[in-house]
Amino acid sequence: MTIEIAIKKKLKEYRLDFSFTSTSRQTALLGASGSGKSMILKCIAGIETPDEGYIRVNGRTLFDKSRKIDLPPQKRRVGYLFQNYALFPNFTVRQNIACVLKKKERQRVDLLLRRFELTEIAEQYGEELSGGQQQRVALARLLASDPEILLLDEPFSALDTFLKEKVELEMKTFLRDYDGEAILVTHNRNEAYRLCEDLVILNRGQGIEHGKLKQIFDQPRYLATSKLTGCKNFSRVERLDDHHLLALDWDLPLTVAGPVTSDIRYVGIRAHFFEEAADPTAENCFTAKILDQTETPFEWRLLCQANDGEVPIWWKLTKDTKRRDFTGVLHVPAAAIQLLQQEPCANVSGREQS
Question: pLDDT per residue over 229-239, tens digit each?
């Protein structure tokens, strides 16, 4: 499977300018609300039309502005799973699946009902189904249309926590067996991490990072990427030499593993990477005053002040590691410190940058 996208579209607040080539089976588009994730899916599906560019799936052109190619949605072989699943409420489960098939293909309905364990509710109507049942019906209907690519638009956003975990597990099993490519749009980093191989980070209509998901989580390049992947602690920096810097907002000198190049503007440290110092004189140790602490079912979340820094630091630790006699000194490994660039500026609608 190969998908190639290079599209531009003027939106209300900025200009979508997105390029992407992938051979991965599962890719997540991760970005904040309003970053253009759903618009990209709609352009792939043919619901929206880009102003410029092209979209190709397995060498087949779905859209090419310069060649005046714009296939209608029903000819694109793209399956789109909407946030609310978009079932017909006045259709039964069987009818919702059958509606995308030609009459001579209707025998496939029973196969799909069995595959998604829907046989017992085949005659129930869409409005009578649970969230998990609705999703299975929507996926069965998508497969009935024989798509080359699946587009999943925030598929768990309407579900409560308990049901979300169950439905997500079903989705994981489904994607493992699906032969085509799937693109998942989400603002939930945990969903992306559990379901996908590759990751694209979106920031105001631009794809600023693309690669293997776990590598991007471990070594983000940009400040926006680090924030979207869950890091809580950031400071502006002053470079001292190739492996030393001053975290200005924490008043904290740090030794880092990677080279501090001229384009590094920030450091990021995940809250779980701090630890009580075994040797207070070792590098990357600093005095910390606990300003506040919050208990959750499985961890402690402590708000700390480092040295005389103006910006507090979040420190998280599981309950079985919390010590009552905190020494007042924290340590962070050099390898745990993220060296971050400022993300590229997005084109603002009406004021496009040269």
Answer: 999 999 999 99
